[in-house]
Amino acid sequence: MKIENLLRPNIRKLVPYSSARSEYSGRDVLYLDANESPFNNGVNRYPDPYQTELKAAIAEDRGVRPDQLFIGNGSDETLDLLFRAFCEPGKDNIIATPPTYGMYKVLADINGVEYREAPLNEDFSLNVKSVLNQIDENTKLIFICSPNNPTGNCLEKEKIEFIAEFFTGILVIDEAYIDFSEKESFSKGLVKGVQLFVNQTLSKSNSGAGLRVGVGIANPEIIAVLNRIKPPYNINTLAQVEALKLVKDKAKFNENLAEILAEKQRLFKGLNALTIVSKIYPSDANFWLVKFENANGVYEALKQEGIIVRNRSKELHCENCLRITIGSKTENDTLLEQLIKMDQKTTK
Ligand SMILES: *Cc1c(COP(=O)(O)O)cnc(C)c1O
């Protein structure tokens, strides 16, 4: 289906705000058009509304073209804009596959859009039939999170492609954790004609959660829609400057990534040796989902020691599960030390 036909009617008709910097962005001129202050302190000017320099760097890094990129104020903004562009409140619906990232439901609720669930199987694999069963003519977005949060596993490529063949809306693949995985990003397959929207972020592998820089990768037609409806200056100057540094410092990125992956294996061995741990789920991300004999007890005891993990035991198929982020070597040592103590107490 054409993007134009998927859009909400009000967005189709929208005349976007035209900012001063999008009307004129040449260099070496006197800018007296935006009512800015003339006193140069590094932030007295409005930021580049289309983040040209940052997009060029990310495009090179990710092997895509700049016109396939959208930068959001965190993925939160990017995903919210997808709802606002394509989902008519009170009419349209979206599908997600719990247990998964909680923001999809929150964004659906905020936007007055029906949230449909197609639960993963108990082994956290994708249930294609259940996804297909939920699709109707008002389904605009399907969210597939891979590697999935909070379970950690990648969902099967063949199954995702099978769903894509049947679906005429936009298939959102959330790849916030893709850099920790050896699986290939879906951004490489954007050309195939399916309406894919790949969501990535500088928040995890790029060590930039505080900057709020989300990276959307899609065909230029979808990107153009988001550009029309985004707040004009959605990425502030400081975030653009710091994000550019993070993206360009490939050596540091690789070094950090290698350390997290090594620590992840070390943490696995430590956790695996504990009797209070009953299962560690396979993970392609920077965390482990760990099943304990008594997750709430472990969660509270760790909290007492000032160690906060994520209690996911109320999520579907996640009884007694805690999600544990891979920290630095010292942080992981501290965690393991406390868990070993608890282990000795309970096995005595
Ligand atoms: C952490 C995370 C994000 C990143 O969100 P930002 O707003 O970019 O920080 C997106 N999706 C999933 C599944 C995540 O776990």
Question: Would you kindly provide a written description of the structure presented here, covering whatever features stand out?
Answer:
With about 350 residues, the protein is an alpha/beta fold. The protein has helices at about 5, 10-15, 20-25, 50-60, 75-85, 105-110, 130-135, 155-165, 220-230, 235-250, 250-270, 295-305, 330-345, and strands at about 70, 95, 115, 140-145, 170-175, 195-200, 215-220, 275-280, 285-290, 310, 320-325. The strands form two sheets. The protein has a seven-stranded mixed sheet, sandwiched between helices. The chain has a four-stranded antiparallel sheet with strand order 8-9-11-10, with helices on one face. Helix 8 links the parallel strand 4 (about 140-145) and strand 5 (about 170-175). The longest helix is centred in the C-terminal third of the chain and has 23 residues, at about 250-270. The chain is globular. The termini are far apart. Pyridoxal-5'-phosphate binds near residues 75, 149, 201, 209 and 214. Pyridoxal-5'-phosphate binds near residues 75, 145 and 176.
